[in-house]
Write the structure tokens for this entry.
Amino acid sequence: MESNSGQAKISKSHLKQEKYSISSGIAIVINNETFESGLKLPDRKGSSSDAASLFQSFQELGFEHELLSDASFEEMKEKFEEIKNDKEQLEKTGCLVVALLTHGDEDNVYMSDRSIKLTTVMSFFDTVNCPELVLKPKIFIFQTSRGEGIGRGVNVTVVRDPNQADGVAEYHEYNKSYGVPMRIPNEADFLAVYSTSHGYRSFRSTDQGTPFIKHLTEELRNMKEGEDFYKILTRVNRKVGIGYQPNIPRIDVTQMPCFISHLTKKLVLSCKN
């Protein structure tokens, strides 16, 4: 397998930090509601309210922000290349957020004209293609279905149980020397946030948008100073996974969001103006 050495330069102090240093950020919200006829995909009515709410959330956080509507693959690529080519801006940027609200399946998302693999979307900003963002958090939010499955869940009876102590695992830091050359994985510092679990549908109301974006934007607005982003996402998981009950006649269904983290530090979105 071909190996890439990369051209990024990072300081020892940056490596040693336990929390990402975020003084500024870039947020791109891509909202695809209508699609070319050849794709035979229905309109995503109600998604504009999600996009506006999410856009406002990152605006309030002080991110440089932009909203793309019904973007083709080339339009998305052009925007990503524009961000990558502004080296001076990227050097100052502490965090990148890309939110994609669209149709999807197990491994792909749809632009207005074609499908594209999830991994391809994220690879635009990996360590090889965008070294200016090495060791900076790159958050990808996917409000899409990820298959045709319907989460059924089970009925449970909640009872009081005795307190149990949590197990505590030892943490071993294997690389204590930062003065020598080291490799950063291409996948490092990515956080992929999904509205539903792999293989399952994601629900949307034509009037109120999606439960996932609704709770995510609420949690962003209400997050405490210095709060780890993991805690915010976990609350969203709980509110959608346990609290959301879609009104579908004769079928009991659920929706379970999830996130996959390759972050290497604590993430606090604190770049408010």
About this structure: The mean pLDDT is 82. The two ends are 44 Å apart (CA to CA). Strands lie at 25-31, 64-69, 95-101, 108-110, 115-117, 138-143, 190-194, 258-261. Helices lie at 12-16, 47-60, 73-85, 87-92, 118-123, 211-222, 229-241.
